Structures are given as C-alpha cells and as structure tokens.
Amino acid sequence: MKVVAAVLLLAGVLLGACAGGAGTGGDVGTDGSTASGVAQAEDDLRIELDRGDGTPPETWTLTCGARVGGTHPQAEAACTHLAGMSEPFAPLPEDLVCTEQYGGPQTAHVTGRWNGEPVDLQLSRVDGCRISQWDSLGPLLPVPVGERPVPLG
C-alpha cells in the first residue's frame, strides 16, 4: 500500500511540474516576464535581415545592458549606438512625405524589447525616409548594403 501511495504522489508532482511550465520559456507577457516567470532583459532584440539577393535571411539576437550578449556580429557597437539614440525603434509617421528613391531590396524585422518597451519594427529601403531610418540604426544592421561579409575562419 505504501508503494502505491508513493507512486501516486510522485505522479502528481511530475504532472504538476509539467502543467506549470517548469521553466521551458514561452510567451512573453507585457511586463517582460515569460510563462515561467523569468523576466526578459529590458534591451533584448531579435534582428532578421534579408539582403534581397536570394541568399537565406540572417537572424541575430542582441542583448544590451550590464552585459552585452547574443549572436549579433557587432554586439558592443550596436548596443553603444542604440543607447545614444532617443527612440531608435519609433515608427515613421503615417503622414511623412518621402523622396522617391530606391535604396535596394533589403528588408529587416526587429522584434523584442528596448528600454523595457516592446519593439516590432519592419524596415526597408524603398524610399528616402526608410533609407534614412535604416541608416540611422548603424551597426544594428551590420552588413553594408550590397556587400557580403567575408567568412571568418
């Protein structure tokens, strides 16, 4: 009888841990916490870059703050540059008048959090305003337009 009770107790503990998420991550709440209760860094970004030349899109992560981290190839420079901007991820105003010029087929999508606020910014180079917005982000989009990086190693 004691063995059956021990097995049932162990099964209940295991099922409770599975139902509670047990730290597996998941959706990020509006306060930056995940389903497991772990807070996301205030400056934690994901950058998806499509060069528009048929090569596969590239994706990097970037975490800024006391410790800089992620897979971004110029993480320190990107964090320093963004920290010097007042609102790096502000969308362009709807009524903005832009020059008709084409800067290339490149697109990028930046998501995550910056200064504790959600970020979801689509970028392109299809007119003068969007080219300027792209260029203002400097090393966040580290590959010069029209160039492929030389593989290291």
Description:
The protein is of the alpha+beta class. The longest helix has 18 residues. The protein is globular, with a radius of gyration of 21 Å. Helices cover 24% and strands 20% of the residues. Strand 1 and strand 2 form a beta hairpin. The N and C termini lie far apart (63 Å). Strands 2-1-3-4 form a four-stranded antiparallel sheet, covered by helices on one side. It contains three helices and four strands.
User: What is the strand tally?
Assistant: 4
Tally of helical segments? 3
Low-confidence runs of at least 5 consecutive residues: 1-39
Rg, nearest Å: 21 Å
The H/E string reads: HEEHEEH
The percent range for strand residues is 15-25%
Structural shape: globular
Strands of the biggest beta sheet: in what spatial order?
2-1-3-4
Binned, the helix content reads 10-25%
Distance between the first and last residues' Cα? 63 Å
Q: What is the mean pLDDT?
A: 77
Summing up helix and strand content along with how strands pair, one would put the structural category as alpha+beta
Largest sheet: 4 strands, antiparallel
